[in-house]
User: Fold this.
Amino acid sequence: MSEDTAELEARLEEQDAFEPPAEFVEQANVSDDAIYEEFEEEWPECWERAADLLDWEEEYDEVLDASDPPFYEWFTGGSLNASANCLDRHLDERGDEAAIEWVGEPSDEENVTYTYEELHREVNEFAAALRDLGVGEDDVVTMYMPMIPELPIAMLACARIGAPHSVVFAGFSADALATRMESADSEYLVTANGYYRRGDALDHFEKTREGLGGVDHEVSDVVVVDRLGDDGHGYDLEDEEHYYAALVADHEGAAVEPVSRDAEDMLFLMYTSGTTGKPKGVKHTTGGYLSWVSWTSQAVLDVKPEDTYWCSADIGWITGHSYIVYGPLALGTTSVMYEGTPDHPERDRLWDIVDEYDVTQLYTAPTAIRAFMKWGSQYPEQHDLSSLRLLGTVGEPINPRAWKWYYKHIGDESCPIVDTWWQTETGGMMVTTLPGVSTMKPGSAGPPLPGVDARVVDTTGEEVDAGRAGYLTVNKPWPGMLRTLYKNDERFIDEYWAEYSDTDSDDMDDWVYFPEDGAKIDEDGYVTVLGRVDDVINVSGHRLGTMEIESSIVGVEGVAEAAVVGGSHDVKGEAVYAYVITEDGYDEDEEMRDRIVQGVEDAIGPIARPEQVIFTPELPKTRSGKIMRRLLEDIANEEELGNTSTLRNPDVVEDIQQKVGGD
Ligand code: WT7
Assistant:
């Protein structure tokens, strides 16, 4: 432990509640705690306040149509266009202000500012180009792109012409791309030839082509951004492949009228991991989603047009969709976007950017904070971070130690921290303190947002007493919620509603959303999220399905069976532990281990790479033949093991324990 951490701990260790700084409260977008009561009394009309943040072409007739739960509809009868809300309506007043400040990874490269005017122009040009390629309303366009400006441009161009996008994280494998394009029947792809990572020009195009090769239907067009220029890996494009720059140049000055979209029309699809091996296509809509991310950006992130706001997530995940692109741009602020890693060229890169751009809000993940803490406070200390007004975290639980480090060393004890709980499915934030209102308790996300009816319940759905662990549920619908899983209403009900709802009822009160997280609640109604209770693990804030990883391991030659669990990890929160049984005649050696790791990288991507591969002759199973995952988790965490007497094969446990400890 470094000196400063020790000193900090001594002073802050005892403190478990922090008040919002007075200076912050004075200027906060929301500073009156009456909002909680008002929203409760006015529900669901309270959500008009969110819808009012947008420009509607056609006013909606009804805030909520709950006639067919859980297929709720919000702002029915209304119509609007997301790109017009994020761009056109800001032109008069903020046309010359920066919409996106883009920072490439190579530190000697020029950063690029897109004013609202410039972003509007390029979105129009690319929208015209997409149309020319044949993209029509409701055609799903897939994007497989790194953190370059053309990604938000392509998203907004799609929104402009009413074509839903489906962004696939660039770190995912070729197989993952193919599965998602196929599931969405997507015939168009926007990609890039590569990107910079820790100083290297990484090729992205070979992986793209490999993925395309795995798509069963015909893909009509592929647009390629030339990110690497002279550092590119020299490809000749095929007929259906087009350079982005050439398309945009061909449509210079084009104006595309924003398509009027029904509030309930799909804005985008986002694939996420669930219990089964097949990723789920989460469907978000134009009116409800955009209202939700705008309202939460304003109330929780305290975004104002004159801010320079930075969310350091990747747009390939929901956090980037909601809080780099749609929320901030709908509010007309400046959104910072960074291509690379926080330790390139040095471990002060983030602080360098905060300093250079006078960033006012920083929204990042606990994993990143734990890494910064490990690297030491000398890095932030080299920079002036006094422009910061608010800090946020998302994606996984934050331990009080990391929270306090963030509070002291980044926020100088003068910025409120919002620890925001939400999911791909919820569209935006659900449980968090309001920074200008609430006391903060490190380690606890806070109360549900005003108008959000989140509870902690037991297996029968009854609320648990303060201090006890239970399951998080959301007992009323909200505008930003997913509407269904793409073309799979049945799975939508099974996955999220079946557990706690009376699925035969058409009364909204009988329907309860289950996010599959465990949680505790305290006497003040603050929720501490404990983590997933399904077979999903959270590595560095990235959601991975254990079944997906298992099936990729079982696909490796010589593997008979595999079980994957999350084991706790200092920095990543959780790491992948793979227990593997080999087939007869295969050695449990390094070569086998490498092939397993490679198998996972090929099927999903390097983020899912196992931290440890543990060979075992057997997996602990119950008498009915179910793998005891809880036990494997405890072994991975080197924890005291609970009752093993229900096992069919108790002897195997000690054997596995020795292997994990011995590695
Ligand atoms: C899962 C959702 C939220 C956008 C990024 C991740 C976990 C998320 C928190 C938090 C504790 C959190 C939950 C959730 N999670 N935020 N503040 N505290 N856990 O979205 O990939 O859909 O993952 O992330 O387990 O269910 P996602």
